[in-house]
Amino acid sequence: MAKCEVCGKGVHFGNNVSHSHRRSNRIWNANVQRVAVKINGSTRRMNVCTSCLRSNAVERA
Asked: Which Pfam families does the UniProt entry name for this protein (predicted)?
């Protein structure tokens, strides 16, 4: 899974815990989108998480 190029948010690891309290591995993927972004007047494709898009950390092209 990709990592956000603005804030660095990526994959988190943890455990699924069943009702009987048995544990198995689990992954939480960040909601990362590949979008066109304006940087210094030019357009570039970047991997950006949706929280950075909502907070206007980058300007979409």
From this structure: Ribosomal_L28
